[in-house]
Amino acid sequence: MAQENLLIELGTEELPPKSLRKLAQAFAENMQIELKKVELSFVKIDWLASPRRLAVVITDLVDAQADKIVEKRGPALSMAFTKDGTPTKAAQGWAKSNSISVDQAERLVTDKGEWLLFKSEVKGKSIADLLPKVVAEALSKLPIPKPMRWGSSNIQFIRPVHTLCILFGNELIHAELLGVKSSRVIRGHRFLGEAELTIKHADDYEQLLETRGKVIVNYERRKEIIRHQVDVLAELEAGVADVDDALLEEVTSLVEWPVTLIGSFEEKYLLVPSEALIYTMKDNQKYFPVKDKSGNLLPRFIFVSNIESTDPKQVIQGNEKVVRPRLADAEFFFANDKKKTLESRVESLSSVLFQKKLGTLKEKSARISNVAGKIALLINANSKHSQRAGWLSKADLLTDMVLEFPDIQGVMGMYYARFDGEDEAVAIALKEQYLPRFSGDKLPTSLVACAVSLADKLDTLVGIFGIGQAPKGAADPFALRRAAIGLLRIIKDKELDLDIVKLTEIAKHEYGEKLTNENVVLDVVNFLFARFRATYQANGFSAELIQSVLARRPTKPVDFEKRIQAVAKFQQLEEAAPIAAANKRISNILAKVQGKINTEIDTMLFTETAETALAEKLIALELKLSPLFDKGDYESALFELASLQAPVDLFFENVMVMADNEAIKQNRLAILSRLRDLFLKVADVSVL
Fold this sequence. Notes:
By secondary structure, the protein is an alpha+beta fold. The protein has five domains: about 5-65 and about 125-215, 2-Layer Sandwich (Alpha-Beta Plaits), CATH 3.30.70.260; about 70-120, no CATH class; about 220-335, no CATH class; about 350-540, Hypothetical protein af1432; about 565-685, Isoleucyl-tRNA Synthetase, Domain 1 (Orthogonal Bundle), CATH 1.10.730. The chain has 26 helices and 20 strands. The chain has a five-stranded antiparallel beta sheet, covered by helices on one side. Strands 15-17-18-16 form a four-stranded antiparallel beta sheet, with helices on both faces. A three-stranded antiparallel beta sheet has the order 4-6-5.
């Protein structure tokens, strides 16, 4: 069976840059699935993409399906022939359906009997027959939220399609997909190189496009070229380019032939907060800002052009001309905003709704202020500064700068607070109140900022749950999952001695009579526990391990972390599995007991050496572990408890718990109950 490399390229209008990687990877994944469905083997699939094309290259694809022997079982011999050996109608009908006579059938012999059997060879289909449908299926399953139509056709795709090329080695596979017939024609760069190219062999694809079409179709290579060029230009300015991967991805998806250039702007704009300048350069213009080695913004920016100009200076001047008005706007907004203090802006928040049932942003600011002040007292932060930061926390939302550049809310609050003469702790808290914004984001740096951030998140969680609008399915319009995860991260990673039940009750109190859900505290706490489960599972902890701790409902995140880490290490011990099994057995025994179990142990009722040994070990451990539990040293406690494996095993081997003598039975149940309670001070290890 012959093997060749297969090229599939779909030429389109410019594809959405933020979706390009996702589309290309999905195309490759879909092709892999569809090829396996039709049993066409290959070595690997690579995806390629540029703004005007999606492509896959499949290495060493076979040219046809393998031939197969198909077995069709007929009636059992007892049903296929009469007593004199004449074929029955059932046998004749089956033979006719397979285009043979009964005497041509083979026999299938098994332990359960003997049947008629027909074996036929099914010749595998060629890729010429299979690929059109395979590619069509792969394209139809691309993640396209809003397909479009073009011309007078009803065909839909993410963008209009102009070319289709399916080459198996040097053989063109004929197909018609999305209204376009396959051909050897592929398109080069829109402005550079040759507009149309004729490709002879699949292996020529990348080189042909690059040398004659001025298109670097390998996405990852194009991305690295841009990264390298940007770094080199920044180094020439004795600076460092501000390159985040999201922007680099977007720029990579916007160009086919990257040419990196550097422009400049007037130094006067550096008096504007750098975050605003960086935001407009990166978000609006897709430029890479340049900073000096100390992290200060330089009056330079790097941009990536999609053309190779004979006069680069004109291109640079054009981009400088475009960015200048945006920087001037930022300068104007900053100067204008400073004419009013943050304090004077709070009253304006009374005209902006947080949520119609929960009041305005001014009311939210007041709640955040009160809750932040109370949290500050619990974590030894400055309560006055926390209250002040909470009161001013939303004041920058109506400034011109934030209205123009929403992503720098909080940041501008910090700058305006400094200008107003607020304490630096207040200013920093205004900037850090929204942290962490996403998974892996940094946390607030000060305790005052932690108090405000926690208060803001709690207010939202309690408020929305309090009016019965908990997230359903994937819908989460108030980003409650993100708020919950952020809240837990701050408490855990900052090692704050805070209880989520108490925090929720504090936040609930501030709402007064606004809330209609009587179970709001329980609902919020359960929601937070669910985030514990999701977060720890994402970090590689097993569901059983997490459940063992959740079963105890420790409501302090720092305490929860200590328990789960302790159980994780306990699981690695040889004694862990038998002890877990013993705890499960004990749990089952105790669950069947009617009435209350007396936990007093009477040594005079011991009749077996094994129960004496276990009880003595248990009582000794209770005394030894008490100080460990008090200081939350669960790891040491569990390692000590591991020493119970031998006496517990001996107990179950030699002692009948449910003895006929009621007093002896109750005494043995007391031993098991206290043993189980000792483990439950850490986790329910019976679920491990």
